[in-house]
Amino acid sequence: MRITEIFEYHIKTFSFEFFPPRNYQSILELGINVGQLLKLSPSFVSVTYGAGGSTQELSFDLVDYIQNKIGLTTMAHYTCINANKAKVEEDLKYLIERKIENLMLLRGDLPSEGSSGLNTDFLHASDLIPIAKSLDAFSIGAAGYPEGHQESRNIEEDIKWMKYKIDQGSDFIITQMFFNNDLYFDFVDRARKANINTRIIPGIMPITNYKQISKFSKMSGATIPDSIVQRFEPIQDDPKIMYRTGVDLAIEQCIDLLRKGAPGLHFYTLNKSRATVDIFSSIPHGLTN
User: Fold this and answer.
1) What is the DSSP string of 69-118?
2) Which tens digits make up the pLDDT trace of 192-237?
3) CB of 105 within 8 A of CB of 78?
4) Which of 96, 110, 158, 206 could bridge to 148 as Cys pair (CB 3.0-4.6 Å)?
5) How far apart are CA 120 and CA 234, in angstroms?
6) Could you say which of 8, 17, 89, 97 is catalytic?
7) CATH number at residue 70
8) Domain residues for 27?
9) Full-model pTM
10) Between the CA of residue 278 and those of 175, 210, 224, 255, what are the distances in Å?
11) Is 17 one of the annotated active-site residues of the chain?
């Protein structure tokens, strides 16, 4: 089923993101975590795609397995940086053959030396979207940045590029993680004023490992408010207290988002089910219907 079809019947969607396992132990852990999250009846799940396609085979295999063996609606991430047109067409055909109907289309991270020497067929996700759209085989998601993409000069420019991705064929937006809900609602408001009327789903990343999330935050440009920093720095070496604090904070964030009208939640699980189960199970039932 296409995610856009799910939107027709559900005002809110709840989804989980996984990444391909890299070794035998992580395969077992992923299986356990997928099993735990299945109990929550997600609207759909997504599977990431390594930088430069470094985990392409694992990613496609996992998408195929979750979609066609487990039976969950699954969205494949696909990055285009340094790809050529022939490879992109081949990959999309491969996904169609496996009845994958949902894509999250991204540029992908630039290599450390930047864009120098890269294949120039696809330098932006917006270069990839029209090709996928022309096949009439996919619902297409794109990324949104409540604080603006790091390479945009300002939020206005970033909204302009997001509008361009919609005009090129994206059907919905899933945001990068954020920790201040005002940023999300301001982002949605700016999008609506720019005539972006697609669903904008907030991306949630619980802070259960403060050092790890701080690193992700610096890499992505997502700020952690001082009030949260002050809560976590004194407890960052106590995993149990940090976990409970992070889960409680995420529960508060999710409830506030849903009460104020967010169209669901997309959890960046980091292949760990416990936090997502604890958070989702603590949201009042009336907010998840």
Assistant:
1) II---EEEEEE-TT--HHHHHHHHHHHHHTT--EEEEE--PPPTTTTTT-
2) 999 999 999 999 999 999 999 999 888 888 999 999 999 999 999 9
3) yes
4) 158
5) 47
6) 17
7) 3.20.20.220
8) 3-287
9) 0.93
10) 22, 18, 22, 13
11) yes
